[in-house]
Write the structure tokens for this entry.
Amino acid sequence: MTTPKTPVADAGGGASGTTVAAVAHPAAEAFAAAYPVRPVPATGPVETSPIATTPAALEELDPLWRAVVHETRTRGNDIHLPISLAFAERLCRAYPDADAELVRVATLLHDTGWAHVDESRIISEGFAGDWRKAAIRYEHEKQGCEVARRVLPGLGYSPEFVERVCDIIDGHDTRPVAHSLEDALMRDADRLWRFDQAGIALASSWFGMDPATYTDRLAAEIVPELITQAAHDMAVADLARSTALLKTAVIR
């Protein structure tokens, strides 16, 4: 499935929800100039089968997973992060110009900061009202960067690479625009997991919604946020499967 190709200057900038004229950060401007059409067309193969058929398979990331086991035990990260990483790997194949290692590592670590904030505030503040601007959202991004800076050097990652990872983690929920293709792919992977049945089951409870209401929200609000065409196609395919499986047309 494809969507009309729209110049960024004429439409919301994917997940940014802004126009080129409103973009102020130099990195955001550079990204918008390099990829002026939204959703960003894929240059590689786009796989839209159920994500369970292609789990994240890179064993070289296993040491990193082991280093953040504690961080995966908060807010369902042990479900959210592996599924998001599987989507990230698919997106990297669809966009071979991206630095796949950077996308994968940033995706694996992006929500680890939730383990280092007040857990009692995660649902009440982070998933209510204008949740994108909730203080705890900023806190978990900063804490995620601290996790990256703590674990990555000991696993052989360079200081420059670590800071590139942190540049993506810091603002992945609260910054309105992507600063690079890698940033965009991580953001899309973070959203795509919600369209899988497991994501719907978990995330709908965070927002206090039944599955039918939550999938309506995915269609109305999250699909338009996706920055890349590949992510859009994956989301639409997954949403169709999930709504059929969960019978949301009837159970509402």
